[in-house]
Amino acid sequence: xxxxxxxxxxxxxxxxxxxxxxxxxxxxxxxxxxxxxxxxxxxxxxxxxxxxxxxxxxxxxxxxxxxxxxxxxxxxxxxxxxxxxxxxxxxxxxxxxxxxxxxxxxxxxxxxxxxxxxxxxxxxxxxxxxxxxxxxxxxxxxxxxxxxxxxxxxxxxxxxxxxxxxxxxxxxxxxxxxxxxxxxxxxxxxxxxxxxxxxxxxxxxxxxxxxxxxxxxxxxxxxxxxxxxxxxxxxxxxxxxxxxxxxxxxxxxxxxxxxxxxxxxxxxxxxxxxxxxxxxxxxxxxxxxxxxxxxxxxxxxxxxxxxxxxxxxxxxxxxxxxxxxxxxxxxxxxxxxxxxxxxxxxxxxxxxxxxxxxxxxxxxxxxxxxxxxx
Length: 374
Hints:
- The protein is an alpha+beta fold.
- It folds into two domains: 6-305, 2-Layer Sandwich (BirA Bifunctional Protein, domain 2), CATH 3.30.930.10; 313-372, no CATH class.
- Helix content is 34%, strand content 26%.
- It has twelve helices and 16 strands.
- The chain has helices at 11-25, 39-43, 72-78, 121-138, 149-157, 163-175, 178-187, 196-203, 208-215, 223-236, 281-286, 327-339, and strands spanning 29-30, 36-38, 56-58, 64-67, 86-98, 105-117, 142-148, 205-206, 245-248, 261-267, 275-279, 292-299, 315-320, 344-347, 356-363, 366-372.
- α1 runs antiparallel to α4, α4 crosses α10 and α6 (163-175) packs antiparallel against α7 (178-187).
């Protein structure tokens, strides 16, 4: 049997195989969906989406359809409430979104999982652990940043801000912009004493124990959230190295959809976050559901930013032949190299602008090596 040559697989494609195995081993079933969904589903939940630019078209029955910009909404729509039951699914799908800055639509390779139903501490810990393990499959040089909307809500509630100002402060928290947050508070007449927790959330970052030790005494309504974080991080630490876990309250989402736990994953060498997740019970309430939910998505298209040693060469070998070469012998030589798991390009001349590890030639005496690159 021919070996799979991993060098011809892109980073995202390599990750998919390992991620499928990981998720299935923890009881998640694969979810498959159509490329199209009724537009109304997305129109009613635009603020939940990463981008509200959606490609639409009119279906055969006259309904307005959309190329899917999101998988989570479709999964939620397809599940039913059931006491004590969990819907645990994983997916790898392509979604279609407008890129920030350009507005051009892009097909994005995405993988992830959703756990919907009676969510408890075990479910939250399992999803966090699988998020961390997903990152480690891609690279050991990763970090998982964790936050909690209950703590952020505590800081915001005591400020008594107008709707616009609240959105501005949330944006400042996400950007870790203390100056901007304080300017908004000052313009709203918020006493300096009431901004202390907000300052801590923006400036404190890193080791979970150190961060929680600093902010916990300042909490009121957020104390339950802090206790939940402590429990989850302690449980997570039994499977994931502590230096891979950080508290970062800039991790956030629309609080009308998300609640509780929130987290993001980063890989050294990639400029953007590659994983985003959290608890989104509020989304299910908006969709008339009583279940709770937690999940995450991995943006596999970003993995192409990684430097890949496999890309050092376009092909393992170039095999030269001429008009006098016996075709059956040439085919035998090419098959032998390919079946060994190496890539080989057979042609009559040395190709331009192609990087190869080994240059070979087939002649009367068989295959001989002309050049070997280290």
